[in-house]
Amino acid sequence: MMLRRPRRNRKNEVIRSQARETNVGTEHLIYPLFVVDGQNHRSEVKSLPGQFRLSLDHLLKEVEECMNLGIQCFDLFPAVDESLKDKMATYSYAKENFYLRYIQEVKKRFPEAVIMTDVAMDPYSSDGHDGVVKDGEIINDATLDVLGKMSVAQAEAGADIIGPSDMMDGRVEFIRNELDEAGFSNVSIMSYTAKYASAYYGPFRDALDSAPKFGDKKTYQMDPANKREALLEAELDYMEGADYMMVKPALCYLDVIHSLKEAYPIPIAAYNVSGEYAMLKAAAQNGWLDYDRAMPEMLLSIRRAGADVILTYFAKEFAQMQKG
Ligand code: PBG
Q1: How many structural domains compose the chain?
Q2: pTM of the prediction?
C-alpha cells in the first residue's frame, strides 16, 4: 500500500492540465525590437538569427503581424549611426531623433499597442557606456539629467512604459519627478532593478554596435555573485516609485526573480536576454535540442520562478507556435 502516489496526477493530459501550476501566454510577453533610421531596411543580426534591425516601414509591418498573433507590448531599441554619437548622448532627446519619430508613428497606427522604451546612454554614447564618462569613470549624478531628458522626450513621443536600463543610483525617483513635472504622471516606469554585469548581453551589443569602447560595466551593473544586493536595489526602486521591477538576465538569475516576487507587491519582469536566445538557437540549428519543446520550457521556467512578464526575442515565434 502506498497512500501518496504523485503519478496519479500525471495519468493523462486532462488530469495533468488540472494539476498544472504555471502557464505562459502571449499576454505575458514583451517583444524587443531593434530599429534603424532609413527605409526598406531589414538586416538580420548575425548572432541573433531571426531578429532584425528594422526601418519604420518594416517595424510597422512587424508590429501588425505580432498584434494579430496576440503580442501587444513591444520594447524598442535604437541602432544609432556612429556619427550621431557623442559624450553626452545628446541625440537621445534631439528633436530629429528617428527613434522618437518611430514611437510616434507606431502609436498613431496602433494606439492599442503598448510601447516600452529604453533609457540609457549607451546606444547614443561615443564611449559606449550607460552614463557620462569623465577621466575613465562613469559619473552617476551627471547622468541623471540626461536620463531625465531622454525619458520626457520618449513620453512626449507616446511611450507607455519607460525602461531605465542604465543602473545609475537614484534614477527611478529622478525620472518619476521629471515625468510628473512634464505632465506624464500616467507613464509607467519598468526599472531594470537587478541588472547584472553579464556575458549574456553580447549579441545585443552586436545588434546595436553599442559595446563599451573601454573597460566594462562592472561599476554600475551588479556582480553576478550577489542576491541580497538585488533586494537592496529592489527596496530603493520600490520606494522611488517603480511600477514594475525587472531582473536581467533571466535564466542564471531565477532565484533572484523568485525573491523579488515574494518580497514586493508589484509586477516582476524578467529579461530573457540575447545570449539566452542565441544559445538555444545555436543548439537547435545544430540539431542538438528540440527547439519546439526547449523554447516554451525556458519561458515556463521563468514564469514559474515568479516573473509576471517576460521580455523575450522568442515572443513572436512562441505566439506562432501557439496558433499552430
Ligand atoms: C543597455 C542594454 C543592454 C541590454 C538592454 N539594454 C546591454 C548592456 O547593458 O550592455 C541587453 C539586452 C540583451 O542582451 O538582450 N542599456
Answers
A1: 1
A2: 0.97
